[in-house]
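Project standup — Tuesday

K.O.: blocked on the structure for the chain from last sprint. Re-posting the sequence here as requested.
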Amino acid sequence: MLPGRRRRQAAPPVVVLPQPPAADPSEDIDRIADESADAFRYFLARFGEPAMPVTVVSPVPGGFGQGFPGLVYASTLSYFERGDRPLRDLSGSAQRFFADLMRPHEIAHQWWGNVVTSRMDRDAWIMEGLATYSSLLWIEQRKGIAERNEVLAAFRQNLLRKVDGKTVESAGPIILGRRLRTSKLPEAYRVIVYEKGAWILHMLRGIVGDESFFAMLRQLCEQRSGEPVTTEQFQALAASFVPDGYGDAELSDFFDQWVHGTGIPRIAVDWDQTASGGRHRFEMRISQTGVPEYFPLQVPVEVHTLPGRSLVRTVTVGDGADPSRVSIVLRNPASRVAIDPQASLLADTP
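H.V.: unblocked you, prediction finished:
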């Protein structure tokens, strides 16, 4: 070997690992057909007759989806399950959207957008919010409340995500429609109109109760079939289902806060207790920040005592008394406090 020359090392052998075959959505066509038919039957039972007597679900390439009268275009990505390629290369929320939410969302447009319509862009949130929440109702039916709450939590996280120190939700009220989309926040329209819209409907469901909520949706289809509905008309319909004794009978505060305004409250609770005579005097103080001073909200709070034992109190905050105070006499000492245990409020909680 010449001075200054190094012995050339032999190149390591190239090992080619076998690649799993790409997932073929056509292999799952029976599953896709069954799931789509089940979702359609569920919505049929809840909402009444659809736009057309026959509805065809057809794949369309890419991430696009659309619901026309009698025709549902569903992205080919929605034909895969979460662990399949190419879905496994996407984020967890995107996987859930395509695998679980997209097809029922577009199927729900047979009612929301084709039976009932919105003429003006400011009212489009009703159709998109209803279609999105319908897909959550289907998730709740198939996979349970916990799975539905995971989706709602992801929606809340998207709304609270900050860009230049401001939340996406603060881009504007939901009635701005497509004007919410800007070069700085191109996702604001989708996140606010679709995801906040679903949250608004979920909170309305909590106010009126399940039976009245589903009766309201069916009545909406029956009364406004083939006609557009405005935000004001939808508010009047929802208010007619508010239970007696509810503090916001016309839902004026509710719509002012969530539809015509912006802001997601951050709710905090501070509590202590003292023992006397075999009883425990429990006191808690609940406050909210991040919203206007007048932003009344009914906050359910669950107080846990013995294992498996708890009680729930609903506290009004944001109506001028800040923080709101509650005193309870307990037989057993409190161990912890949970704000909004049923995930019924669009709020930021610790």
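K.O.: great, moving the ticket to review. The CA atoms of residues 216 and 237 lie 7 Å apart. DSSP finds eight helices and eleven strands in the chain.
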